[in-house]
């Protein structure tokens, strides 16, 4: 009877997730040769080629894809058993603040992974606007925050930079009407800049929604009664980016920043590392 080694499977998963031995080694705090040796040992034991190696990148073979699902389940069961039976138990709460428009798709996966590693730690997820989150973080009310902003302040680090796009109903025509009807929450950080760009272009506009509720904005836009702006790749499925052919002004780029990643608390640092890896894998 042959047995799969959890450490070897963990290295294989890291290579599959990061797309390279070098990045996997950095994630696992191992040398590149150690990771390569573990994957080779796994291939020798199974008698299968698991990775296609080309230049500096790797991809999974059909056998590798098949093993990956099993490997994840084996490692998950192993980690769950260890976390539940070990005497070293971490308990407590971390407060994580995230703007509503960048919660998906990364944060749910991060929360799932964090819970598997620290099952007795609770993450209190708070969704708000960047301005409010930064104020709460400065007052020590939130441990870790993500923000969407044009720059980055001291103590922050940029995880991603994505275009801000005009958003409307699928196949909608609200963006063609004048005055252009807009829907924003009162505290939306994008609002003033977007309006300023419309004014610079001489585009007449009016506010169709001025609300505290993101749901109200989304409902109005999905009904093709107004348009709004969101980060590319983060709009809900019932809305879409508008291709105006240059009839609406370009909205520029926005940074997704992380604050709290330099904490001395090991568990908080682990949460931030998972957030970094989640955005890097997008």
UniProtKB/TrEMBL annotation:
Give the GO molecular function terms.
Answer: DNA binding; DNA-binding transcription factor activity
The reply on keyword Transcription is: yes
Indicate what this protein is called per its UniProt record. LysR family transcriptional regulator
Q: Which residues form the HTH lysR-type domain?
A: 4-61
Query: Source organism's superkingdom?
Result: Bacteria
Q: What family does this chain come from, according to its entry?
A: Belongs to the LysR transcriptional regulatory family.
The protein's UniProt keywords, in alphabetical order, are: DNA-binding, Transcription, Transcription regulation
């Amino acid at each position: 009877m042959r047995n799969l080694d959890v450490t070897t499977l963990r290295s294989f998963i890291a290579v599959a997730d990061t797309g390279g031995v070098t990045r996997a080694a950095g994630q696992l705090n191992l040398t590149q040769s150690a990771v390569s040796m573990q994957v080779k040992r796994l291939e020798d034991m199974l008698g299968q080629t698991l990775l296609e190696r080309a230049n500096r990148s790797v991809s999974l073979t059909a056998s590798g894809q098949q093993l990956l699902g099993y490997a994840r389940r084996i490692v998950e069961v192993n980690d769950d058993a260890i976390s539940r039976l070990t005497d070293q138990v971490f308990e407590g709460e971390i407060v994580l603040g995230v703007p509503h428009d960048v919660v998906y798709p990364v944060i749910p996966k991060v929360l799932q992974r964090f819970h598997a590693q620290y099952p007795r730690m609770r993450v209190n997820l708070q969704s708000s606007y960047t301005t409010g989150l930064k104020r709460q973080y400065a007052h020590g009310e939130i441990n870790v925050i993500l923000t969407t902003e044009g720059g980055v302040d001291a103590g922050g680090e940029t995880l991603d930079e994505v275009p801000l796009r005009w958003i409307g109903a699928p196949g909608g025509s609200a963006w063609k009407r004048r005055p252009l009807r807009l829907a924003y929450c009162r505290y939306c950080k994008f609002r003033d800049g977007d309006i300023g760009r419309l004014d610079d272009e001489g585009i007449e506009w009016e506010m169709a929604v001025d609300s505290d509720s993101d749901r109200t904005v989304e409902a109005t836009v999905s009904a093709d009664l107004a348009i709004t702006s969101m980060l590319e790749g983060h709009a809900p499925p019932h809305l879409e980016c508008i291709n105006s052919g240059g009839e609406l002004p370009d909205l520029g780029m926005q940074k997704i920043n992380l604050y709290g990643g330099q904490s001395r608390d090991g568990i908080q640092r682990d949460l931030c590392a998972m957030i970094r890896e989640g955005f890097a894998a997008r």
